[in-house]
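Troubleshooting: if your tokenizer reports a length mismatch, compare your output against this known-good record of 73 residues.
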Amino acid sequence: MNMARTLVGKNVNVYLKDGSVILNVKVVTARSEKGNGGPNISCRALRQKKPLKIRLKEIAWTEQLNPYFAERA
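Known-good structure output:
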């Protein structure tokens, strides 16, 4: 959970355990919700209004992106 909190406000690529990849999303929040299946992160793509919730146990690893890359894209 502490690692997820360090990603808040940063652009990352999220690699899930099922092999899929979510590219270039901004982590909005990291919360531990007891009623909704445990800790999760909320992330948003560039043109997406509603955040996507991903449970931490579904995430294999994350790759932090260069902040200058996100500004120029």
